[in-house]
Amino acid sequence: MNSIETDTSQKQIYYRLITLWVICEAFAGGIMHGIKIPFSGLVISSLAMICIILIAYHVPEKNAILKATIIVAIFKLMLSPHSPGPAYIAVFFQGLLGNFLFGNKKYFTASAIILGILGAVESAIQRLLVLVIVYGNAFWKAFNVYINKLTGEKSITNYTLFIAIGYIFIHAIVGLLVGIYASRMAKRSLHWKVQHPEFLIKHTEEHQNNFPKKKKKIKAAKWIFVICWALLISAYVYSWIVPGNAIIPKNEIMAMLLRSVLIITTWLFFLSPLLSLLIKKSIENKKVKHHEAIAVITKLLPESKSIFISCWKFSAKEKGVARLKLFTKMLIINTI
Questions:
Q1: Is residue 235 within 8 Å of 246, Cβ to Cβ?
Q2: 31 pLDDT more than 60
Q3: What mean pLDDT, rounded, does the chain reach?
């Protein structure tokens, strides 16, 4: 009897953690619209990795993370059908990496740290690769030349390389901290309900229907493209006004503009829809196999989403990292 109760309890925790991961992937951006800290995308990605680490700790069943990853991808398709292909790539990268790393629970903390670092670094590299593909090396060389002119240095310094390394390094440090924090959290989480009963949230129907609407906004990644185009256009105008002192020749500027517009147009209207279609077809085929889990999680979503919102609102009494820690702690107490 005790064994049956344990299995049932473990299964409930498993489904609730998958539901939380679904919310992180499909709703967190809209729910946390008012967030006032940088790298909000990294915060949401970190929450997803925390879910994976908690599943690894509380559900020792083999391939539990792999199954959870597929279910999360199914719900991402159902709830955010317009999500681009790379968004699914990130989900599967983290999920498959977690499933591999936590195959041996003996090195749980080390596995959590590696997942945190590699998951965060993959996100950073993916964004940097997009910029390199879209604008090519000429844009970044021109940026280096411009900075060198401002500083008055005689030799060309590769500032863009330093910026890229710094960007990846910041993500790696955050991933390291997330891995350490999540591994400790997983080991303490079962005792938190007893230690902090004041953090327990009573669910009501009123909360269930009180969801903030997701507002459309230009993502930070899209702002980068806008800024780069603005810089290129400014450089092109400057090359006409002061042709003898132009940083980049007019023909090179025009080539970079055309290249970026052509690549982005091709991606938006051809490659991204094709990639999304292939991924969605593959995910659709998994629905029948996981119909039981889908039904359970569909019922859990409204309450879990309400809890997510309530925890975020309650944590507003803290600021910055302290708020994130309180928010995460409350979220786990009300999930497990």
A1: yes
A2: no
A3: 77
In angstroms, the CA 260 to CA 267 distance is 10
Instruction: Output the DSSP codes for 145-212.
Output: HHHHHHHT-SSPP-HHHHHHHHHHHHHHHHHHHHHHHHHHHHHHHHHHHHH-GGG-----HHHHT-PP
Q: Which two tokens stand for residue 217?
A: 């906004």
Encode 82-116: b = buried (16+ Cβ within 10 Å), e = exposed. Answer: ebbbbebebbebbbebbbebbeeeeebeebbbbbb
**Taking the model in full, what pTM does it have?**
0.75
Distance of CA 288 to the CA centre of its chain: 27
Give residue for tokens 């980068």.
224
For residue 86, name the pLDDT band (cuts at 50, 70, 90).
Answer: confident
Q: Round to whole Å and give the CA distance between 145 and 243.
A: 16
Spatial separation of the C-alpha atoms in residues 295 and 93, rounded to whole Å: 25
Does the pLDDT at position 113 exceed 60?
yes
| Residue-range domain boundaries for the chain | 2-128+160-218+280-333
Cβ neighbours, 10 Å, residue 258: 10
Question: What distance in Å separates the CA atoms of residue 174 and residue 137, rounded to the nearest whole number?
Answer: 28
pLDDT digit string (tens) for 87-100?
788 888 999 999 99
pLDDT digits (tens, 9 = 90+) for 200-259: 877 544 444 444 444 444 455 565 666 666 766 766 666 666 565 556 666 676 777 777
Question: What distance, in Å, lies between the first and last C-alpha atoms of the chain?
Answer: 21
The whole-angstrom separation of Cα 281 and Cα 285 is 6
